[in-house]
Amino acid sequence: MSNEFDQEDFDHATSIADRANRLMSLHAVPPTPNNFSVWFKYATGRLPALKKTIDILVANKQRFDSATNRDLYDTYVDPRPEHADFPEQLQGVISSAREFLAAAISDNRTQIEALGEVTSECRAVNDPRPIIEKLVKELSDATTRASGLETNFLKTSEELDQIRDSLKLAELHSNTDALTGLANRRSLEAFLRSAQIAAMETGEPLGILMIDIDHFKKFNDSYGHQVGDQVLRLVARVLQDHVCEGDLAARYGGEELTAVLPGASLEICADVAERFRRRISEARLTRRTTGEEIASVTVSIGVAQFRLAESAEVLIERGDRALYQAKRSGRNRTITESDLEDKIAAA
User: Fold this and answer.
1) Domain check: are 221 and 335 in the same one?
2) The pairing of beta strand 256-262 with beta strand 206-213
């Protein structure tokens, strides 16, 4: 019976593997181990979210490029947490805690045996005073051991709190741009990947703003890099003030920032972009060392809307095209991808 069951399992797994391989070949997916893991899970049908995402990609004739394949694997097959491996310090604390517990268990056994002896002696003697003294001593020793154990556990608890705080700080630093305090490129890519999958699953819109500081090189050349950094921090702070909870403001690179707005239509994104752009143009910046007023800061913004099943690279590229059009049109303005389409149609 066992052999029949094993053979059935083997045949079933082989059938699923064959189907996964056929699907990968049909959609030109490179036959790597990671890609096979994704399509094997898809072929089993046991992950509804994965099946829905791939079905949407297929229906929209999306090419399964390296970025798409990597996103599918990272999201559905191997979604590793940020700190999957315990640091050595934590392993040491765990070892210490185990030693404390082992010592406590051993002490309890010793105390129980001693109390058992006292009980036996009570039945054998007439004078209770030696028995009482022995009992008091055993209870005193037990109290001392318990106090020591409590001290050790308090110390361990403090060490665990320190490790937890260190992990939180390390995670914050790994996801944050040091200069601006915004999310960094790594955090942006992870957030955008999740936002795209959520948009495909729910049908909700997803918008992105691509932002570039106008004439940024002029600030560095005229006033020095410290002022350039001051300008970047100003724009970052104002951008953070203009996004809502659940949105993400990030530094894309250099003087280019971005904002990802889940659930926001193109019109809402354009409105957010315009309010942010006007606020920046009205801001006045002074040089900290001299109090000298610095030339006004302006930004150019491109706005794009996520299209079903497209990759993050394609979405960002459309936002960049709108941004470059804003700069070519005179800077200090917002251009949406629909503005670009209207311009092409008019031409």
Assistant:
1) yes
2) antiparallel
To the nearest 10°, report the CA torsion of 256, 259, 260, 266.
-100
> Residue 40's Cα: distance from chain center in Å?
26
Measured CA angle at 345 (ends 344, 347), to 5 deg: 65
Of 77, 97, 119, which residue is a domain's last? Answer: 77
Domain count of the fold of the chain: 3
pTM of the model: 0.62
Q: d(Cα 233, Cα 181) in Å, to the nearest integer?
A: 8
- Residue 181 lies inside a defined structural domain of this protein: no
Same domain flag for 221 and 329:
yes
In this structure, the answer to whether residues 141 and 263 fall within a common structural domain is no
Supply the residues annotated as catalytic: 255
At residue 28, the pLDDT reads 92
Pair (231, 150) in one structural domain: no
DSSP H helices in the chain = 2-26, 33-44, 48-59, 66-72, 88-124, 129-175, 185-202, 216-223, 225-242, 266-282, 312-328, 337-346
In a domain, 52, yes or no: yes
Task: Give the H/E segment covering residue 62.
Answer: none
Residue 168 and residue 264: Cα distance in Å, rounded? 30
Expressed in angstroms, the distance from the first to the final Cα of the chain is 75
Q: What would the mean pLDDT of 290-300 be, rounded to a whole number?
A: 83
Q: Which of 12-21, 131-140, 304-313 has the lowest mean pLDDT?
A: 131-140
In order of 50, 166, 248, 253, 275, the CA distances from 203 in angstroms are 15, 39, 19, 30, 27
Hey, is 199 helix, strand or coil? helix
Of 107-111, 154-158, 205-209, give the range with the top mean pLDDT. Answer: 205-209
Whose tokens are 């105390």? That residue is 111
The verdict on residue 33 lying in a domain is: yes
Kindly indicate the confidence band of residue 104, based on its pLDDT and cuts at 50, 70 and 90. Answer: low
Strand ranges inside 150-279, DSSP E: 206-213, 248-253, 256-262
Buried b (16+ CB within 10 A) or exposed e, 198-230: ebbeeeebbbbbbbbbbebeebeeebeeebbeb
Range of the domain at 24: 2-77
